[in-house]
Amino acid sequence: MEYNERLARFRQGHVNPFDRTEMDSSSEEKDSPKHEVKRSEVIISESKAQSSDRAMDLGLAEDHFSRPVGSFVASDVEQLKQAIEECKRLILELPEHSEKQKDTVVKLIHLRLKLQELKDPEEDEPNSQVVLEHRFSKEKSKSVKQMCDKCSTIIWGLIQTWYTCTGCYYRCHSKCMNLITKPCVRSKVSHQSEYELSICPEVGLDKQDYRCAECRTPISLRGVPSEARQCDYTGQYYCTSCHWNDTAIIPARVIHNWEFEPRKVCRSSMRYLALMISRPVLRLREINPLLFNFVEELVEIRKLRQDILLMKPYFITCKEAMEARLLLHLQDRQHFVENDDMYSLQDLIDTSSGRLSCSLTEIHTTFAKHIKLDCEKCQAKGYMCELCKEGDILFPFDSHTSVCCDCSSVFHRDCYYDNSTKCPRCVRILERKHEESLNP
Fold first, then answer.
1. Rounded to an integer, what distance in angstroms lies between the CA atom of residue 212 and that of residue 148?
2. How confident is the model at residue 369 (pLDDT cuts 50, 70, 90)?
3. Alpha-carbon distance 41 to 111, whole Å?
4. How many CB atoms are closer than 10 A to CB 113?
5. How far is it, in rounded angstroms, from Cα 268 to Cα 170?
6. How far apart are CA 224 and CA 351, in angstroms?
7. Dihedral class, residue 152 (left if φ above 0, else alpha if ψ from -120 to 50, else beta)
8. 271-285: per-residue pLDDT in tens?
9. Which of 91, 112, 113, 248 gets the highest tally of CB atoms within 10 A of its CB?
10. 396-440 pLDDT tens trace
11. Which residues contact 233 (CB under 8 A, 6 or more apart)?
């Protein structure tokens, strides 16, 4: 009855039906189990509301950028700076590892992001731009793990627009694009496809006028005003913005010392080596012919490549081989079906690890199987040894054969010697030419 009266008074606007100040204060009602259950429900609901408020406070509320304590709202740069300083002060004052300190750190991060957003307002940036032969494409990734190659700071993908060069993968903020002074490395690869073949050709920091070899920033070995870092590929010194201590395998050390330990290089050298690694520009026989005397793997690779070149004429005249596209087994190393003396840096790396020998032996076996077993037309192009006229059909890539350097006839190695044995086919060709000259 009393509850109904209170409800009627509430409807008239006189009292809150749940106001405990006007409830009956008899000890019997307060201490009843039923009353305790209701009270516990109220406490649980209040704790849930508090946890919900805290969750909203960590990133779901609209007012992300308020002070940790109070109702201050940061709406411009100056207010944001004041709020950031206030957060820093509170973080130091609050108990370490406490929940309030963690919440304040989260707010500090949001405040700094907001400040960066206000300093660099998002504009309608074009999807592609061309700067110093760089072909920049606008990125949509929101990752924050990228670094700007111009200013050497983090790219905050959530609030900042950034671009990547499709040629050399140079990354930078949109605001840094007008400050770029480094041309695209891919253009250098297109115009100058060759390596520096001297090991760390250092000229000295004094020859560089104590300035970065790329951006001309003052540098010194003592780190004042900026640390000088040497690139093991060019031998020159660079500042910390142009040299991030990236590592790469140096071609000159591989060719001269067969050494594959990565060395520290500057950013531009790292990109250049990455773009050049698969280009067949190393003619080992001319650069260091003695390398074949000390590296057995190179001798094996050279023999396999020579055999593949001897197999190539069979495939380009065989319909079945063309339909099966057998030569595409070497599409990643197209130069292997063009010559046997040009190597890429990747070829040498794979030779040292043993991967190239395994893959090339497998391809060699597949090619030989087609010519000698699977295809009758290719089998018909084999040779009989005209010296002993015995044995199986011979092919120029067989290990136990010798090939005439003039007419390409094939003989058993035991039957034919390049300098001491006359090739029967060459003799017939000479006789035929002599008869034609006598009877024009």
1. 19
2. very high
3. 37
4. 17
5. 9
6. 44
7. left
8. 899 989 999 999 999
9. 248
10. 888 888 888 888 888 888 887 765 678 888 888 888 888 888 876
11. 196, 200, 248, 250, 252, 263, 265, 266, 269, 272, 273
- Taking the C-alpha atoms of residue 192 and residue 169, their distance in angstroms, rounded to an integer, is 19
| Residues in CB range of 146: below 8 A, 6 or more apart | 154, 155, 157, 162, 171
Q: How far is CA 186 from CA 166, 177, 198, 267, in A?
A: 9, 18, 22, 13
Task: Tokens 């406070």: give the residue.
Answer: 57
- Distant-in-sequence, close-in-space partners of 213: CB < 8 Å, separation ≥ 6: 231, 234, 236, 237, 238, 242, 266
Could you tell me the end-to-end alpha-carbon distance of the chain, in angstroms, rounded to an integer? Answer: 140
* 3 state SS for the chain: CHHHHHHHHHHCCCCCCCCHHHCCCCHHHHCCHHHHHHHHHHHHHHHHHHHHHHHHHHHHCCCCCECCCCCCECCCHHHHHHHHHHHHHHHHHCCCCCHHHHHHHHHHHHHHHHHHHHHCCCCCCCCEEEECCEEEEECCCCCCCEECCCCCCEECCCCCCEEEECCCCCEEEHHHHHHCCCCCHHHHHHHCCCCCCCCCCCCCCHHHCCECCCCCCECECCCCCCECEECCCCCCEECCCCCCCEEECCHHHHHHHCCCCCEEECHHHHHHHHHHCCCCCEEHHHHCCCHHHHCHHHHHHHHHHHHHHHHHHHHHCCHHHHHHCHHHHHHHHHHHHCCCCEECHHHHHHHHHCHHHHHHHHHHHHHHHHHHHHCHHHHCCCECCCCCCCCCCECCCCCCEEECCCCCCEEECCCCCCCCCCCHHHHHHHHHHHHHHHCC
Write down the pTM of the prediction.
Answer: 0.61
- Reference 285, options 345, 343, 245; nearest CA is 343
Neighbour count for residue 23 (Cβ, 10 Å): 15
Q: Residue 115 is encoded by which pair of tokens?
A: 């400040």
Q: How far apart are CA 370 and CA 320, in angstroms?
A: 9
CA distances from 36 to 6, 40, 45, 363 (A): 21, 6, 14, 83
Q: Which residues neighbour 240 within 8 Å (Cβ) at sequence distance 6 or greater?
A: 152, 226, 227, 229
Say which amino acid occupies 34: K
Q: Hey, what are 432's tokens?
A: 């035929």
Give the residue carrying structure tokens 């197999």.
Answer: 311
Nearest to 131 by CA among 190, 192, 179, 191: 179
